[in-house]
Structures are given as C-alpha cells and as structure tokens.
Amino acid sequence: MRTLLWIIVICLSCPLAGSDGYALWLGHQLIEDSIVRQDYRAALTFIDGSTGGGEVATTATNELRRGLSELLGVQPLRGPGEAGAHGIYLGLRGRSARLDHYLATADVPDLGSEGYHLVYHDGDVLLLADDEPGLLYGAFDLLRQVQALTDLRSLNRTEQPAYAHRILNHWDNLDGTVERGYAGFSIWNWHQLPEYIDQRYVDYARANASIGINGTVVTNVNANSLIFREDYLDKAKALADIFRPYGIKLYLTARFSSPMELGGLDTADPLDPAVIAWWKEKVEEIYARIPDFGGFLVKANSEGQPGPWEYGRTHAEGANVLADALAPHGGIVVWRAFVYSDEAGRDRFREAYDEFTPLDGRFRNNVLVQIKNGPIDFQPREPVSPLFAAMPRTPLMLELQITKEYLGQGTHLVGLASMYEEVLGTDLRPTEPGGEVHQLISGIAGVSNIGTARNWTGNLFGQADWFAFGRLAWAPQTAAREIFAEWAGLTFGRDPEVIDSITQMLALSYPACVNYMTPLGLHHIMNTGHHYGPGPWIDDLGRADWNPYYYHGATRDSIGFDRTSTGSDALSQYPEGFARRYADPATTPEKFLLWFHRLPWDYELAGGNTLWRELGLRYQLGVEQVGEMADIWSGLEGRIDAERFRHVSQHLAIQQREAEWWRDACLAYFRSVSGRPLPEGVPAPPQTLEEYKALTYPYAPGIRPQW
Ligand code: BDP
C-alpha cells in the first residue's frame, strides 16, 4: 500500500507524462495541488447538455467529460446535478431553462456561426452557442482555462472566429510521400482506407478542432486525378465521416486535366460543354458520398500543373467551371495565385499580381483566391504580397506555410507565430483604415507540417506552429508571445519557469533564423531543389530565376534586387502610401532592404554601420541567438521529462552547428565577391569557400539519394 502511495506521489510530482509528444497540446495535466483540484471539482460536478443531440454537440460534451476527468481526476456526472450542486450547462440558445434564465438577465450578442459565450453565473459555468460547432470550440476553450488554472469566477468570454475558412492544406501524395514534409510519411493510409480507420485520424480531427481549424485539404496541390476515381472517393468519404463530428470539412485538390485523364475526354477546356458536364457529374458523385464536402483547392498553370491557359482561357474561366459545379451543393473553389510562367524573363515577384488583378470581379461568388503570404515563395522573411490589396471584389485566402521548407525544415526550432503575426499585421494601405492583411482576407490556409512521426511534426516544436496557425486563423490579432506561452503551458505543464523559458526561446527563434539565413532582406539563397542549407553562389541552372544568385546579384561593388522604378518596378504594385516608404532605402525597413534595393557595400545604415558590416554582424547575431536558445533550454533540465528534453537538446545542437554553417558559408562567399575583410567580432569561416560549395547532403529531405 505504502509503495503504491509513493508511486502516486512520484507520478503527481513528475514532469508532464505523455512525453513522446503524441498528445500534442491536449495532454491535460491532472491539477497537482489537491486544494485547487478540489475547488474545481466542486464547481464542475456535472455537465448538463441541452444540445439536441447532434454529432458535433455530442463531441463537445464528450470532450469536456474526457478533458475534465484528466484534469480533475474524476469524471463529471451527467447533469443536472442534485439541488445545490454546481456544474456546466452547455447548450444552444432557447433549449435549456438554466441558460434561458441567464439570457433573460444578460445581454448576449448574436454569436453567429461557430461563436460561443462562456461565462460564470450563480455558481455554474454556462457555455452557450447558436450552433453546434460553437459548443465544441467553447468546450475546448474551457478545458484550456482549467489547464491554465484560470479562476472560473472570472470567466466571461465571447468568441467568434474572424474567418469562416480556417483550413489545413496537406501536400500529401497518394503514394504516401509528403511534398516538403519533414515529419515522415502521409498519415492517410489510402491502401487500408476505408475499412481500416486509424485512431490517428480521430486524434488528428480532435487536435484541429481544439484550435478552431474547420477544414482540411487532404491531397497535394500538385494533384493526382486518381483521387476522383470511385474507390478513392470511398476512402475520402471514410475520412470525411471521421472529421464531421469535429466540425471539420474535407476538401480535395482538383487536377485541372482530370476530365481527360479520368474522364477520357480529349480536352479539359473549361468552356467545353462535355468538360462542364464532367465536372458537374463528378461533383454530384462526391456529394452523394460526402454531403458536406468543402470543395476544391486548385493549383493551375504553375510549375508544370495543367490549367486553363492551355486553352487560351483565364484563371477565372478555369475556376468558374468548378465553382458552378459546386455551387448547388454549397461547396467552394480555392484557386491559388501562386503562378509564375514557365518562361523566365520577368521578375517573379510581379507575376501573381500581373496575372490576377485584371481578373478581379470575374470569379464566381464561391471562389476564393489563395495567395501565399509573400510574392516569391515562403522565404524566411518576405514582404507581404501586393495582391492582398489589389482584388477588392474577390474574397481572398492567405496561404501560410506551417511546414518549414525554407526555414531549416524539420531540424530547426523556429516559432512561426512571429512570422504570421508580422504578416497579418502588415498595413498595406497605411494612409487609410482597413488595410492590414488580416482585414483584407476571408480565410486562412496553412500548409501542414503533419506526418507519421510519433509526435506528428517530427520536430516537437513544430507542434507550436500548427497550434499557432489554428489560434491565429481564429483570432488573427493575437500576439505571438501569448500563443507561445499558451502552447508551452498546454504542452509542457504549469511550471511558470518552464513556460517563461519556452516562450522566450520561441520569441527569439524567428529573428534568429532570419539573421543566420537571410538577413537584411536577402532571399532565396538556399541550396536548390531541396532548399536546405546555404547556396548563394549557385548561378548555373537553366533558368535565371531558379538560381539563388539571381536574387541578390552580388558583385564587387553592390548587392540586392532593385524592385523600384529603376529596376523591375514591382514596388509599383503596392498602394501608394506603402510603396512610397519602400521606394527610398533610407525609409525602407532594414529587414526588407535587399528585397527592394540594390546598394553599394559601403551604403550606410541608420545605425551607422555599412551594409557590409551590418550583414556580417547579423549573421553573427543569428548564431549567438541560437546559442542563447540552447542555454535557456539547458536550464530546463530536470524540469521537463527526459525524453522531450533530449529530443529538443539534440535538435538545438544541430541548429547551432547549421546556423554557423549558414553564417560561415554565406560570409565566405560574400567576402570573396566583395573583397572585404570580415567585420570585427565575426570569426573567420573554418573552411574555404570551395569546401562549402562542394558540400553535398543527399540525405536532406526532398532528395532521392543516387549512387
Ligand atoms: C514551393 C515548393 C513546391 C510546391 C510549390 C507550391 O517548393 O514543392 O509545390 O511551392 O506551393 O514552395 O505549389
């Protein structure tokens, strides 16, 4: 008996269990302090649901029951409780006497679709919504509050999502590989679906619902028509059935040439009657299986994907044929603006804007145009795409990358919430209201970083990016720091020192990465193909804009890409007030300097350093910041379970070495071009430039190792 007691005591005091990371931020830690635990138990003795018993509402109740029993160590009863007992009443407006009694006295606004009101009233916790998903999101919110030991008496929250579309984009191929995926293989087991339902699908849906994600595109934008074949649709239906109780809609990517490949037609011309009929029928087939199917995501005429251009049609004409087929069923088309022509010549920065702005207003109502945050391609830091301010008559989606293609992939710890915050808060029309990116969009998509890794994201800290994506898609003005702290608490437990330290590390990590990879507005200088490691010297690929060199053009005298009126004039795509500031290097934020200007190495920056000196110091700073992150982490030894401690320590050691590699290789190269000595305080690269150039790493993800 005594041994058993000891085991219990030890387990209660040891760092958060579930240390392989599978539980994500849903590890619900039993409240350690018995007095506090008792208080919560007394306040939450039962759950009384007045929901009409729909699937999503049932999930809400079940999740509350499960979460609270993990947090409190007892299962709340089914309500209502005995006289005098306190508990949770959850329900839709007009369904419960207890809630209606509250509503008679309180002024609760229209909660709209998916919104909720969570309040403490006369000793009970009330969770109210106007639809079932609202109850689900409110339930997860309440669990977060209890995990964070929020005083229930202070509860009074009214939440509504900023956007109706909060969607994950999986770049998962039907063969199980994941394009730009660094967490193993695809979690969709197409071979064993629909009969075998992996528990992961359910846990995946739960995790998404818990952070407000309400849609998922399960296939790659480089699409395969096979997904529309009947057997695959049966498999997709099985997934949709799992996701539905969690308020998540399934979407598929549509390959534009499917009517030919699958339908046997000799054209995919969007104005051809047979093509129109094919899409209509295909869509009906899908809805017969998946009545709440979300719609299609399409990459067309980009990087070799088929599209309407083959037939002399516009993107709008291409999108509209799909939109017309989906409209009667309530589905949408998300059409990507990530296009650049197969022929080189123009500044790629300009292309999406040039292609899409003339089409504003020409898309059907159920089409959203999805724009990557930056005009080039998910660089560590990009100026925001000018297209966000240029299509006032078209609903727009922002596309963010959660997977870290150009950001150290699965190896580096980089808290992307900082980048998302920067993007969403960018004001493209500084001279008038309403021009911040989060105000210009109708939805957010995130390219998933999820795979078969036991902890879902490979690098444990990748979970923080998935979490941040969901939280920001719901409330885009949330501060990154707040999200970091929330994630740390939910993932690593309640120790305030652990939470603070992890918050600090995450906050440092994004600036660190930009510093050691692409300071001062350098971009696209990653090694080609796999995009891992530095390669600013590469200039021998077939087409100019495939070469990292093209993006900085460093010579003995100067460096940078002139996008002002003396150069490609991409700057003119921005609203006037924004463009004016960026037209002059002296008023351009330094973090974007080389995105827009070509400057002499001796150009003097605001702080007094020359461009050359500042560049060197930034690389150095990035390395030091990673060192700081590693130091903070080592201070947590013993406060975090050994498994996760080791996992992160090892990754940080690699990141440290690779940050140095980035600094050394880039500076060795830029020094050789500029002919200048390294600034004081920056150590000499330990290898020669030739040695850095000769490095190969065939094991980097995205490469097929060859003999
Ligand atoms: C690039 C990736 C490529 C994707 C493409 C896209 O390198 O693998 O297919 O974006 O977004 O970043 O379509």
TrEMBL record:
Residues 24-142 form the Alpha glucuronidase N-terminal domain. Residues 457-681 form the Glycosyl hydrolase family 67 C-terminal domain. It comes from the Bacteria. Residues 147-456 form the Glycosyl hydrolase family 67 catalytic domain. InterPro entries: A-glucoronidase_C_sf (IPR037054), GH (IPR017853), Glyco_hydro_67_aGlcAse_N (IPR005154), Glyco_hydro_67_C (IPR011099), Glyco_hydro_67_cat (IPR011100), Hex-like_dom2 (IPR029018). Keywords: Carbohydrate metabolism, Glycosidase, Hydrolase, Polysaccharide degradation, Xylan degradation. It catalyses: Hydrolysis of (1->2)-alpha-D-(4-O-methyl)glucuronosyl links in the main chain of hardwood xylans. GO terms for cellular component: extracellular region. Its EC number is 3.2.1.131. It holds the Pfam family Glyco_hydro_67N. The keyword Hydrolase applies. GO terms for molecular function: alpha-glucuronidase activity; xylan alpha-1,2-glucuronosidase activity. PANTHER family: ALPHA-GLUCURONIDASE A. Belongs to the glycosyl hydrolase 67 family. Homodimer. This is Xylan alpha-1,2-glucuronidase. It comes from Neolewinella aquimaris.
